[in-house]
Design brief:
Elements (H helix, E strand, L loop, with lengths): L1 H10 L27 H27 L10 H25 L10
Helix pairs in contact: 2-3
Keywords: Membrane, Transmembrane, Transmembrane helix
Length: 110
């Protein structure tokens, strides 16, 4: 129990909730990688984003074909898959932004 309390005390500090981070690489490099390339995580996040877009579009099409398209937004399941699409889109956007800026070796953290 003491280890959990120590971990929570370390992680849930006011400065941790700011939009600053010491090690920006944690957002665009996967924990399984041996190199410093952001391309593998970009590809994984891109595939996840495309799959979640396909799920949302197919959900809308299936509901529209049944003639109940106006009811699509009232179901929490549809909101869940929509938020999944948004979150994977943000992850893909972060990785794409890093990839467009060039190699990670040129990264300058303030």
């Amino acid at each position: 129990m003491g280890a959990i309390k120590k971990y929570c005390k370390k992680e849930f500090q006011i400065q941790k909730f700011k939009f600053e981070h010491d090690d920006g690489e944690e957002f665009f490099i996967g924990c399984f990688q041996q190199n410093r390339s952001c391309l593998p995580l970009l590809i994984i996040r891109g595939l996840l984003f495309l799959c979640s877009v396909a799920i949302v579009v197919s959900s809308i099409v299936i509901v529209a074909e049944t003639g109940k398209g106006a009811f699509w937004p009232i179901y929490m399941t549809h909101w869940g898959i929509f938020l999944m699409m948004v979150s994977t889109g943000f992850g893909f956007g972060i990785s794409m932004h890093r990839y467009m800026k060039g190699p990670i070796g040129k990264l300058q953290i303030k």
